[in-house]
Amino acid sequence: MFSLPILTLLVVWPAVAALVLWLVPPLHEHARAYGLVASLVEVALLVVALTQFEIGAAATVQLTEQVPWIPAIGASWALGVNGLGLAMVALAVLLVPVVVIARHPGEGGPDWGWVTLVLLLEALVVAVFAARDVFLFYILFEAMLFPVYFLVGRYGGPDRRRAALKFLLYSLAGGLIMLVGVVALHGYGPGGDEAYLIDSLAGTLTASLGAEQLLFVSFFIAFAIKAPMVPVHTWLPDTAQQADSGTSTLLVGVLDKVGTFGMIMLCLPLFPRASAWAAPVVIVLAVVSILWGGLVALAQRDFMRLTAMTSVSHFGFIVLGIFVGSATAMTGAMIYMVAHGLSTAAMFLTLGFLEKRGRSQWIPVYRGMQRVTPTLAGLFLVAALASAALPGLSGFVPEYLVLLGTFQANTAAAAFAVLGVILAALYVLLPYQRMFTGPKEEGIAGAVDLHGREKAAMAPLVVAMLALGFFPGPVLDALSPVADQSAPLVQSAASADTASAGEGGTR
Fold first, then answer.
1. Strand partners of residue 68
2. Position 292 in a domain
């Protein structure tokens, strides 16, 4: 029977839509409507992919496609998703129409250029989450930087060019380090026509432990920059401060998940011994990210920089769940990737709406805004409480699972990580108090509350945050099998190294 290449269609459709918009000037006047229709067609293709995916076999890579690409080095156009890959694809596809609806006409420049770049970015992000060939993954990992660079550098704030360049330099530096690992990986794999396939490489590398450690480091540094983790996170607050709210939503809500996705889907299966070797250091860095991100967020008076630093803290929780060696924590980390994408999107968009009314990102400017824009204030509070893991909202289940699994595996790390929960309550409630409560400031007294288009953009995010908070079962069903398969890789590798060291000592 003919098999519909649904993943390729999910990649090709937004890329073709972007190309048509770029080449057909009459469409430029209707760019936002065109972008919304194109992104909704992508949602329809996602629904087809969801119907073809078997949740009962979520740990298995499904919807697979493979076509030779560069036979001389064994690279191929190989796509496929397990439960985690499908969840990340769904997150990317669902957020694009939201940011298109939320965009203010002419914000920072012509709409057609912005929509073209967003559709191109969507194509690349879907492809990177579905890539099953390491070489293909690397090419896509690098290619998706350029739409973001132009989105920030063309449509951002007054210091946008510096922020865009800083983002690009950090990301390219990490990518070049990873390229060394990609090239070296070829020599330790099975070779042939499937030299770079993840499924062929996993468990078959002939590298010594020292070589495997170097390969792990080359990949992990690139993913840590993308994640972002302390100390390679400093590009994020600058970029978030200068980018428009829609770009920040896609950057932090979706693109940064490529870092943690790569840790799970590449680092753990390809380099299990090196992952176990590095886990203690990575856990310390994760805890530092949780605490440092929270403390720096508390000190911010620019609300976009504040939101960016809260994400550094949240990514610390995700990385902790990945490397602590607990299936419970790993499940929490994967759900956290989805939940954070929803809550941070809601926070960036509501703050973008607020900035349009007050022409500033400075928190003290907006004192008393609740009296002027009660709907906006209420939606920001919902997003902030979801970010702070309030029970009943999207952040609670993943954060609980990460902490529960960490307590079972590493009590000391869990004890420090719990402090991040306290910091989260402070860094979301104090800004709310400073922006929305108290007497009205004269400068924003004439602002208007959210209108219909802005409410329409926020509605699916609020529904999704509530659904994931009260009914996490479907997402758990899709991600738990992947976690059960991934978490033991670190545990078994560590046990094997310990047993080998014990035998060596006995001899």
1. 76
2. yes
**Each residue of 393-408: b (16+ CB within 10 Å) or e?**
bbbbbbbbbbbbbbbe
So what's the pLDDT on residue 442? Answer: 59
Residue whose entry in the numeric block shows the structure tokens 């805004």 = 369
* Rounded Cα distance, 410 and 341, in Å: 27
**Taking Cα atoms as reference points, which of 502, 317, 285, 290 lies closest to residue 403?**
317
Q: The tokens of 212 are what?
A: 């495997």
**Cβ atoms 414, 407 nearer than 8 A:** yes
User: Is 471 part of any domain?
Assistant: yes
Torsion angle, alpha carbons of 437, 438, 439, 445, to 10:
-20
pLDDT of residue 157: 87
**Measured between alpha carbons, how far is 507 from 502 in angstroms, rounded to an integer?**
9
DSSP 109: S
| 21 within some domain | no
Count of structural domains within the chain:
1
The rounded distance, in Å, linking the Cα atoms of 477 and 470 is: 15
Phi first, then psi, for residue 450 (nearest 5°) are -60, 140
- Residue-by-residue DSSP string for 391-439: TTSTTHHHHHHHHHHHHHH-HHHHHHHHHHHHHHHHHHHHHHHHHHSSS
pLDDT, tens digit, for every residue of 224-260?
Answer: 999 999 999 999 999 999 999 999 999 999 999 999 9
- 166 in helix, strand or coil? helix
State the Cα–Cα distance between residues 214 and 244, nearest whole angstrom: 38
Nearest to 241 by CA among 142, 363, 337: 363
DSSP state, 302?
B
**Would you say residue 336 lies in a domain?**
yes
* Upper half-sphere CA count for residue 250 (Cβ side, 13 Å): 35
Residue 291 tokens, joined: 């605490």
Gap between the Cα atoms of 379 and 350, Å rounded: 7
pLDDT at residue 493 is higher than 60: no
Q: First vs last Cα of the chain: how many Å apart?
A: 59
Roughly what angle, to the nearest 10 degrees, separates helices 134-143 and 160-188? 170
* Residue-averaged pLDDT of the chain: 90
Range of the domain at 441: 271-492
Under 8 Å between Cβ of 197 and 174: no
* Rounded Cα–Cα distance for residues 469 and 399 (Å): 11
Instruction: Kindly write down the DSSP assignment for every residue of 45-100, as one continuous string.
Output: HHHHHHHHS-GGGTTS-EEEEEEEEETTTTEEEEEEE-HHHHHHHHHHHHHHHHHH
With bands split at pLDDT 50, 70 and 90, how would you rate the model's confidence at 182?
very high
- Using the CB atoms, write b or e for 26-54: b if 16+ within 10 Å: ebbeebbebbbebbeebeebbeebeeebe
List of residues 6+ apart from 49 with CB closer than 8 A: 6, 7, 10, 63, 81, 86, 89
Dihedral over alpha carbons 247, 249, 250, 253 (to 10 degrees)? 150
